[in-house]
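Morning - zinc ion inputs below, output right after.
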Amino acid sequence: MFYIGNHLSASKGYLAMGEMAVKLGANTFAFFTRNPRGGKAKAIDEKDVERYLDFAKKNKIGTLVAHAPYTMNLCAAKEEIRKFSIEMIADDLRRMEYTPGNYYNFHPGSHVGQGAEEGIRLIADALNQVLEEAKNTTVLLETMAGKGSEVGRSFEEIREIIDRVELADRLGVCFDTCHVWDGGYDIVGHLDDVLDEFDNVIGLERLKAVHFNDSMNTCGAHKDRHQKIGQGKIGAEAMRRVACHPALAGKPFILETPNDDAGYAAEIAQIKEWTKEGETV
Ligand code: FE
Ligand code: FE
Ligand code: ZN
């Protein structure tokens, strides 16, 4: 089964997201666990969750890929921001338990001048404080483009974080095609090599989800500007190869491309077409 969907607004709750996903031709989706700029999360509406779970079962919706807010920075230089971030992720993970079995994806953080090593140490330390809450949720570290002082710009940095975490069985990785490309991994010319490298450094069994985005910039640009599928520097042909790669089969693919609903529906239809062809090759 191929799972594809896009990032949806969470403002009307789970059932509304499920219905929207189906309307767009999707069978998974992503959403922010709270306002992406931070702030207090809306309380979970248990009735809505119940209705959603029923709807998801009937419509065969796969594993969801929730996204932490951008303001969360587990390796901020200021202690109060780190503390606030740890409270935020702990609260998000508790709320994820209402919809068990899904993924919670977050940006490892920005070390803001403290250096990657210190960033890695602080992120792992934070995870060691909160992962207890992820009883039925897998927490995904997103591969980053390396913009500014982002940690997670290489497979090695992600591996180093995982190595320092006690409950590492609750961790996985979200492979963002735009970020990996911008980070300097040539998924256009050498996709097999990049995935081999991922396997050698992190282990493919950790690769749980894909953020499926084209990029406005060249490989190694460290920019992080998403583009519509086939209209960026990665291009349609390379994106098709990613979608059809056997190492990524069965993982949820999430579009974070600059689109409206009609644009997402068109991309979803296109990717479904690709993967159908892929099955017969
Ligand atoms: Fe992200
Ligand atoms: Fe992403
Ligand atoms: Zn991005």
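Note: The chain has one domain: 3-278.

O.
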